[in-house]
Amino acid sequence: MTPQERIAELTDQLNYYNHQYYQKSVSEVDDFTFDQLLVELTELETKYPEFRRPDSPTARVGGTISKEFQTVYHRFPMLSLGNTYSEEDLVEFDNRVRKGLNGQAYEYVCELKFDGVALSMTYENGVLVQGATRGDGVRGDDITNNIRTIRTLPLRLQTPAPQPPAIPALFEVRGEGFLPLAEFDRINKEREDIGEPLLANPRNAASGTFKQQDSSAVAKRRLDCYLYSFLSDPEVFQTHEESLVAMKQWGFNVSQTWRKCADIREVMLYINEWETKRFDLPLGTDGIVIKVNRYDQQRELGYTAKSPRWAIAYKYKALAVSTVLNGIRYQVGRTGAVTPVALLTPVLLAGTIVKRASLHNANEIERLGVMLNDTVFVEKGGEIIPKITGVDLTHRTDQSQPIVYPTTCPACGTPLIRKEGEANFYCPNERGCPPQRQARFEHFIQRRAMNIESLGEGKIELLIDRGLVQTPADLYKLTFDDLLGIEKVFDDEETGKRRVVSFREKTVENILTAIERSKAQPFQNVLFALGIRYVGNTTAEKLADYFGSMDAIMSATQEQLLAVPDTGPRIAESVVEWFADPENRDYVERLRAAGLQFAGEKKVVEREGDTLEGKTFLYTGTFINFSREELEARIAANGGKVLSGISKKLNYLIVGENAGPSKLEKAQKLNVTMISEDEFMAMLSV
Ligand code: IVH
Known about the structure:
Largest sheet: 7 strands, antiparallel
CATH class of the largest domain: Alpha Beta
Number of domains: 6
Bound molecules: 2-(butylsulfanyl)adenosine
C-alpha cells in the first residue's frame, strides 16, 4: 500500500469511527486503538503533507453537528487535549513546558479525566442562558433545555458572591456531562424489568441522552455534570486553582478530586494513586488531565492547531487481565430473556476478585469468537460488571471447545425463540418456567410495587417449592398455620456456605402484616406490580393518572392508550395483549377479590406548553384567578414542578394575598425569586 492509499484509508476509517461515536453514540473501537490510528495518520500527514485530505480527522477537534438542534458558535473554541499513555511522554511534556516558560517556576493542577460528554454553559447576569455540546469545537448544538435538567447545575447563581472576585456579568463554564454509574444501573435494571434492551455503557448512554429532543425524557435520567473550566473576558482569576475554588463556592459541581502538584513527580504520584481509586468514584474515568496552573503561563505556552500546549491527558490503559473461561451459565430473567454469563477462573482485577463477566448475548459470543476453556481478556471499564473483550489465541489448545448456544430453556426445557430484530433468545414459558415465576414474585413484592420485601431472600422460593403459591395472588390466601415452621436449607454457590431459611413465629407475623398492608398500596403500584411488558414504574403512574381505574385500563383500546402522554404503540399493544389473555384476567380478578387498590385519583394533565419546563414553583397565600388546585394543574400542564417547601432548589415563589410571612422571609434568605400572580400569568402566556 502506498502512503497515499494508507492516508486515505485511515482518514475514511477514523471518520467512520468518529461518525459512529459522535452521531450514533456507538464506539466500535477502544480508545487506545483509535488513538494509535490517529497517531499513525498524523505522522503520515507530517511526512507527506501533499496527500493530506481536506476531510482529515486530524484537523478536527470532534464530531460534526447534529441537524435537529440550533447551531451555536462558541465564544471560545472548545479544544481537545493531546493524549499520552506513558510516563516518558509526560516527562517530555514537562520538558516542553519548562522550555516554553524560559525557566520560570510553575505548578500543575491534576484532575481526573471524566468519561462523558463535553458541555459548555453560558451565564448572563448569573442566569444560565445557554448550554451547548462541543460539536466540532467551533460550533455545537444548543441543548439548553436538556442541560437545564441537570440537577446539580445552578440555573441562577446566588449573588453576590460570598467573597471576591465578583461574578462577571457574562461568563462560560465548561465541564463533563455524565450519567452516574448508579443511575446507569438503575436505568438498566428498569429496562430489564420491562424487557427493553440494555444500555451498553454510561458514556454512550449520556451522549445519547443529551441528544434527545424531548427534554422531559432527558430529565428522567438523572444526568450530572462536573465543571472544570471557567472562561470570561476579561479574566477574573490568576490561576486555574482559583477558578476551581470559586466555581465550587458559587454553587457549581466541581469534583473534589483535583490536586495542585508542585512538579511532574507529584503528578506521577497522583496518577498512581488514582489508578485504582478511580473505580470508587460515582462515574467512569479514563485518565488524568494535567494543566499548568497559572493563566499567564498558559497564555505564554499557547496552542497548537487543536489543543493547548499547557495541558495534556494521561490515559490509563484499560485494566485488563487474562484468565480461563470455564463455562457459561445461562440466566433466565423475568421476561424470559436468556443471557449468558461467563464463569471464570477467579482473578484479581482492580482490587476485586472477578469470577464472572458479562457476555451480553449470542451475537457477542460469535463476535468474540470465544470458545470454552479459552484464555480470555477481561477488562474493567466504566461499567460495574467486567466484560470479556477478547481471546488470547496464543493460548488456545485442543481443549478449547465451541460454545453451543442452548436451543431449549436451561431452566424448564421449553424451546427458545428469538424475536425479529432482537439479540436475545427468550423462553416463552412465562408461567411454568421456575426462574421466570420466581422473578415475577420478586417484581411483585418490590418496594415500588406491593412493598412486601420481608418476603425476600429465598422465602419466595420456599413458598413456591412447597406448593403454597402459584401466582402472587396466592399470597393473599396464606394463613399463619400455612407458614409456621416451614424451612429449607440453601447451598450458596457463591460462598459455598449453607443458609437456612425458616419461618419462625415472628417472621410469619411480619410477613402476614406486610401482605395485609400491601392492600393499601396505591393503584399505580398495583398496575406496575402486574409486570406487563414495557409498563415500568413511570408508565404505570401515567396510565393510572390518566384512566383512574383498572377497569378503565382493561377495557381501553390501543387508540385510547395512545392518548396517554408518553405512551407509544409498543406499550399500547403490550397492555391490550396482556389484558386479552384469559389467564391474566383471572389473575387480576383474584387480586381484586383480595382487596387491592383498583382505582386511584384521575389526574390527567392536558399539556398546554413548555414555558415552565425545568422550573420549580411554590405558592403562598390566596389568588384571584386560581384555586390552589388550578394553580398546581397549570404549573404541571406547562412543564413546571411544584415543590413541597422552600429550598435552594426552588426557582419561584408565587406570592398571593395574605401570604405567610415565614415563607417570604425564608425565600428572601435563600434568594428565591418571588413573583406575583400577574407575573406568573405572564410567564404562562409567553
Ligand atoms: S479540560 C482545552 N478537564 O476531555 C482543555 N477536559 O480531550 C479542555 N475531559 O473535551 C478540556 N475530564 O470532554 C478537561 N478534567 C477535565 C476533563 C476533560 C474530561 C474531556 C473533555 C474534553 C476532552 C479533551
